[in-house]
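agent: user wants the full assembly modeled, not chains individually. Plan: 1) parse entity lines 2) check alphabet per entity 3) run joint structure prediction 4) return tokens. Steps 1-2 passed, two entities, 561 residues total. Proceeding.
--- entities ---
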Amino acid sequence: MLRIENLHKRYRTGDEALKGVSFTVPSGQILGLIGPSGSGKSTLIRCVNRLVEPSAGRIFLDDLELTALSHSELRKARRHIGMIFQEFALVERLTVMENVLSGRLGYVPFWRSFSRRYPAVDIDKAFALLERVGVLDQADKRADALSGGQRQRVGIARALEQDPELLLIDEPTASLDPKTSRQIMRLIREVCAERNLPAIINIHDVVLAQTFVDRIVGLRAGEVVFDGAPAALSPQVLTRIYGEEDWTELQRRYDDETEDESGAGDRKAADARIERRAGLA
Amino acid sequence: MPESNAARASPEIGPNAITARIWRRPPLIHNRTLRWACGAGAFMYLTLALASLHINWRRVYDGIERGWRLIQGFLVPDFLSRWGDIAVGMQESLTMTVTSTLVGVLISVPIGIGAARNIAPLPIYFLCRGIIAVSRSLQEIIVAIFFVAMFGFGPFAGFLTLSFGTIGFLSKLLAEDIEDIDESQAEAIRATGAGWWQLVNYGIQPQVMPRLLGLSCYRLDINFRESAVIGIVGAGGIGATLNTAIDRYEFNSAGAILILIIAIVMMSEYFSGYARKWVQ
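--- prediction returned ---
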């Protein structure tokens, strides 16, 4: 379970990215974080594993207060927090297997990781995960030789190799085509269900979010303006999150999706993707 | 009649309409007077500078004759009569080059890592940047004179000079390359709970390795060429042999030495290209 209490983040430039965000994610729940570019979504999930240092507020993973940890304790805690990135963030010149095994870096001493002599259990797990996400035959290829969808699968395997208790997922489908996006979202759903993992997913694509997450939190200018079920995302709510726009088309597409789950994958999400490089601020 | 409708709707941008609009690239200096003043100033400076040159055409004429003899000598390279000296000089230069590049690279890597702002703590960053600045601000010949004065004539002084030069060159470029890495890959490694050394080994090394190797090869052939130069101030190697040959007006031997230097530099150029491709 993840609990965030009154989280604030002010960057040195003076930009206030988060203004008192609080919510709780119970085990097994997939929470979709939506909001316009610059609303603080990336900052929020990076505050959880303190890749970005929060200015105020507290974050608990089960009973462990992440915000109070020392440098070395933080390193230990990060081992249990898997992260999946929008541009995959695989180390491109390393092999797929090395990328997956890098999920164990926090557990093994330097000389083992340096000489690539990982314990047999880690290697078994890595192979099992590659098989689970469907890229077992790519194990010895370099990461930059893979397609986008395959890379994100490796990214998922790397996160799971950590034996995580929480997944932080930053725009997992922003660089993928609509069909692959749906496959990746489905895979994330499945692996979270298998392990009863809580997850936070930043996502621009509202329809995709509605289809695949259990709960949606809407962020606007660093504040939570919506917290509820995907079905409750009415045009009024979307206006509150994103601002004035004609949302009826989006609503109609969502209705189509829910009627026919296996629905057509040709939906263009270009409008959502324009601002996908939202960055941190 | 939809076509005529469209034509009437926008006559001013029709296919045959000619507008009087002109577009020019905005000038670098916006103020017109300043722009002309800069141009005129530059021209005047050039004229005055050329006028201040005192060229003795008599000496130029003599020089052409001597230069021609030099070229004639080079065109008939003589490898044999001084082969013993050339072989010793070459061997010294190559030894100097390889050892100094190796030692230089080994020292440069930690300094380069320390001088990369995105991974090094501030005090270490300043220390390493300081070392680089010192190494870069001293020209090789000056360093060579200094080391020759300290350790006497011969290749050891040359070895120290080239190692010193390599540190400034390689550390700086490596540090800049580390600062330019794709930060997201390093972030992903950091997020797994990896330690600092693991971050360097997994998040950074794979990204900078091809360039490090390429730069090392490049430095190898810079060092070889430098070894010919610093030999002139007494730091041993082929430069000393070349200097002696020219002093004795043995242009045929000097030509042979230059040809060998060019051949070796070209060879190392070829191999560095190959090595970079292989590691990419």
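agent: reporting back. Confidence is low (pLDDT under 50) at residues 261-281 of chain A. Chain A has two domains: 1-80+167-180+197-281, 92-163.
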